[in-house]
Design brief:
The protein is an alpha/beta fold. Helices cover 32% and strands 19% of the residues. It has a single domain (4-273), classed as Alpha-Beta Barrel (TIM Barrel).
Length: 275
């Protein structure tokens, strides 16, 4: 099993369950700092390694009128502010290969969205930066097909790779989490992340927006951590209903500590620690 190091955080077998979390989209500098401040305090109390995540551009929103984000330059400035203020690694996703080099100047962990996980040029551009990268399994892919994604990425000369599960398409406007996928992908030898909030989505289920079932997130986390994952991915917000993206699935900040404490207890006796 490869261990992936991101600044001073090691993710993989034998290392603490880590958290990658932040708002779905970077709404403002103040909001990014507010969220980071809260999560840093919670993870510090729990002894949980933390990476801040925020998107500078949501290029696959359901409707043309939906808020996409601050853009590359302003988004990088917000991520740099979080990094400077709290000393935590930062993560963002990207959608075009030419963006990778600019992001690598600030970002510690790149992320390739699920819908783009097969894009060869995107994978090679991420690998070429030398930065660690999370690749989310496409909702349309069988978990064993992620082997080809792994091969493309490491062909770029980079083994700093995390694989993420975020649910599989199950009919129209619905996702389902197949827990076997976590074991299959971990079998490739790279750490696995469970994207708990996106897995609760109902894509396009709210007409001009993506819907979701936030109430099932704790159950999904319990199952994933029991099977064995190396990190959790969660989109969090102080007032999810007013969030500018994924309002139905972002997890409330005031309920984050309890769910992370539960996850840590399960991890201590769960999948990664069982023969």
């Amino acid at each position: 099993m490869h261990t992936v190091t991101i600044q001073n955080i090691s993710i993989g077998q034998g290392h603490p369950l880590a958290l990658i979390a932040g708002p779905c989209v970077l709404e403002s500098r103040d909001m990014a700092l507010r969220i980071a401040d809260a999560v840093v305090k919670i993870t510090g109390e729990l002894g949980m390694p933390y990476i801040f995540k925020g998107s500078f551009d949501k290029a696959n929103r359901t409707a043309i009128s939906a808020f996409r984000g601050p853009g590359l330059d302003e988004g990088l400035a917000m991520l740099a502010a979080v990094k400077a203020e709290f000393g935590v690694p930062v993560c963002t996703d990207f959608h075009e290969a030419h963006q990778a080099a600019a992001l690598a100047e600030v970002v510690d962990l790149l992320q390739i969205p699920a819908l783009l996980c097969r894009q060869t040029d995107l994978l090679l551009a991420a690998a070429a930066t030398g930065k660690p990268t999370t690749v989310k399994k496409g909702q349309f892919l069988a978990p064993w097909d992620m082997q080809h994604v792994v091969e493309k990425y490491i062909a770029g000369g980079n083994h700093r790779l995390l694989l993420a599960e975020r649910g599989a398409t199950f009919g129209y406007n619905n996702l389902i989490v197949d827990l076997r996928a976590l074991a299959v992908m971990r079998g490739f030898g790279y750490p696995v992340v469970f994207d708990a909030t996106h897995s609760a989505q109902l894509p396009g289920g709210a007409g001009a927006a993506t819907g979701g079932q936030r109430e099932f997130i704790p159950a999904l986390i319990r199952g994933a951590v029991a099977v064995g994952v190396d990190a959790l991915f969660m989109e969090v917000h102080p007032d999810p209903a007013s969030g500018l993206s994924d309002a139905t699935t972002m997890w409330p900040l005031d309920r984050l500590r309890e769910i992370l404490a539960m996850a840590r207890r399960i991890d201590a006796v769960g999948g990664r620690n069982l023969a």
